[in-house]
Design a protein that fits this description.
about 0% strand, about 90 residues, 5 helices, mainly alpha
Length: about 90
């Protein structure tokens, strides 16, 4: 089996870093609604909307980002095997 090239190692590192940052979206996915409201106000956006759809959308986006981060980390463990998938997600 061939050893990974320098480009493969850099790509794996890049995928892991971006994936780890995206996995941080698990924090807002699980945080209490009061924290979401506090963060919303801290950013200067006013009070977080009280409609249930707003909380649903915020948590859905967080879970999607976390899923994507996990996917990138998983792809980083064999960049040669998953090269076409990595290329597809990069273009998308």
């Amino acid at each position: 089996m061939e050893s990974p090239t320098t480009a493969d190692r850099w790509l794996a590192l890049l995928l892991r870093v971006i994936g780890a940052v995206a996995l941080l979206a698990l924090v807002p996915f699980w945080m209490p609604r009061g924290w979401i409201d506090a963060g919303h106000q801290w950013l200067g956006w006013g009070r977080f909307p009280t409609q249930p759809i707003a909380e649903y959308l915020a948590r859905s986006v967080s879970s999607l980002c976390a899923f994507y981060g996990g996917l990138l980390v998983a792809l980083s463990f064999d960049v040669r095997r998953y090269r076409s998938l990595i290329r597809y997600q990069a273009v998308a």
